[in-house]
Amino acid sequence: MNSFLRSLSPTRNYDALIAALAGALIIIAFTRHGGIGISPDSVTYISVADHLHDQGVLTDFNKGPLMDFPAGYPLFLSALRWITGLPVLAFGRLLNAILFGIVIYLSGWILERFSFHSKWYKWTILSCIVFSPCLLEVYSMIWSETLFLLFLLLFIVFFRLYFLSHSTRWLLVLALIAGLATVTRYAGITLLGTGGLLLLCDTRLTWGKKIRHLLLFGTLGIVPVAINLYHNYHATATLTGYREKGINSFGTNLHDFGSVFCDWMPFFKDYHGLASLVGLSWIGLFLVTFTRRLWKKEHFFSYENIATGFFIVYAIFILLTATISRFQTLDSRLLSPLFIPWLWGGSCWVPAWAATRTSIKRVGVVLIMIVVAISFQMRQLRADAEAWDGVRSAGIPGYTEDSWQHSETVDYIRQHKDSLHLKSTLYSNAEDAIWFLTGQRADQLPHKEFARDIREFLAEDHFYVVWFNDGDNPDLVSIEFIQQHKKLTRELSFNDGTIYYFKTDSLARPAP
């Protein structure tokens, strides 16, 4: 244990420390104008953290129980609120800069311990992580992925330590990390799946010990999220909220999955027609690599192979889950946990392969790799430059961006929120924005698929609807639909939205 801690010393990892500081400074720079980025998910995290800190309850800005997200990240933010005495927006920039720096530092430490490693390879991969548009986007926002990625790297580090000794102590640490990851994001269940896969494939364990370790790891790892799910069921009679059925086929999700990799890769940005093939190829390549290492018993217990196992489990999990349940389009954020394992798994063979070539061939290989690395980095830097052009003068896209901060619709609600609240119920297609920007409570317009919610909504005699142009959500009932059942008696239009006032009309169509 002492040798492990000593190996983490910055004096032994100065290059990783430099990269970590660079990454942290980029996050500070990106969030300088307007502060840390806030999305609808961020509003939920912050409001739950506030309620936990102030009232000790797991409720969001609408006073409803937290369901759609696990409680781990809001608990983390609430604990930091208690330690610092500051609101989340006050420490969000520094928090994410630190988390990103730690992720980069751990990545450098792990790269130094690959089966085959070299300094030039380590520096190349570290620079790709530092300037990754995917990771810079994640760490510019209040998102649970910022913490989840740290748990992922810790999982890889401690699984390697477990493989070296098969110590129950390290297995307990692994279970704790996997449990915390699962209660941070429900997708953290993939760490438990990865751990189970690796334990099953470990031929050095007797079957008796293997079963005991599997049961211990799985049982302890599932406890945090099981407690969370019990709370959800007790509060709402659902485990993870009211999930809608998936509307995208597996093929569509595979295309979206592959499109993300096309955007990450240097030569495929304009070739999304090949996205499904690209996505399938990466999964297949990692499956073949993992199977080959298992079959030949070569480097199976290495850091890079643990990351390979995670890539396979997470990729299959996210594709299946997005097909079964309603998901946002598979994008760079949802696939961000795959970025570092993909980078490692797709390149870790290069130092070893180059070392076994003759001098002439080695030079050729190195030149090809330099061209690929430069192309990859130029692709990233161009994307970073485009992002910087926007954020340096307008802020991170989201509710701290200037367009939302200076919204005419929001200004009107701020000035008239008391009268709006007293006259009738307030509905919106971006109710989280109203709460975050004005402190005023609003209800979400009902989803098209929830007939009971629509009936309850239309049963009200009169109400306001605040419609933001940038908050358009096709899953919600539209203004046109409401007009079929209610009489529009007043309309206030602004440059970014409209406020409608509806009343019951006896001639309108009855509620469905």
Summarize the structure.
The protein has helices at 2-7, 14-30, 40-55, 72-84, 88-111, 119-130, 133-138, 145-165, 168-182, 189-201, 207-236, 250-264, 275-296, 303-324, 336-345, 349-355, 359-394, 402-405, 408-423, 431-438, 451-458, 479-485; strands spanning 425-428, 443-444, 462-468, 486-493, 497-504.
How would you summarize the topology of this molecule?
Blueprint: H1 2-7, H2 14-30, H3 40-55, H4 72-84, H5 88-111, H6 119-130, H7 133-138, H8 145-165, H9 168-182, H10 189-201, H11 207-236, H12 250-264, H13 275-296, H14 303-324, H15 336-345, H16 349-355, H17 359-394, H18 402-405, H19 408-423, E1 425-428, H20 431-438, E2 443-444, H21 451-458, E3 462-468, H22 479-485, E4 486-493, E5 497-504
Parallel strand pairs: 1-2, 1-3
Antiparallel strand pairs: 3-5, 4-5
Helix pairs in contact: 2-5, 2-6, 3-4, 5-6, 5-8, 8-9, 9-10, 9-11, 10-11, 10-14, 12-13, 12-14, 13-14, 14-15
Question: What key attributes describe this structure?
Answer:
globular
What does this structure look like?
A 5-stranded mixed beta sheet has the order 2-1-3-5-4. The protein has helices at 2-7, 14-30, 40-55, 72-84, 88-111, 119-130, 133-138, 145-165, 168-182, 189-201, 207-236, 250-264, 275-296, 303-324, 336-345, 349-355, 359-394, 402-405, 408-423, 431-438, 451-458, 479-485, and strands at 425-428, 443-444, 462-468, 486-493, 497-504. The termini are far apart. Among the domains are: 243-356, no CATH class; 407-504. It is mainly α. The longest helix is centred in the C-terminal third of the chain and has 36 residues, at 359-394. Helix 2 runs antiparallel to helix 5. The chain contains 22 helices and 5 strands.
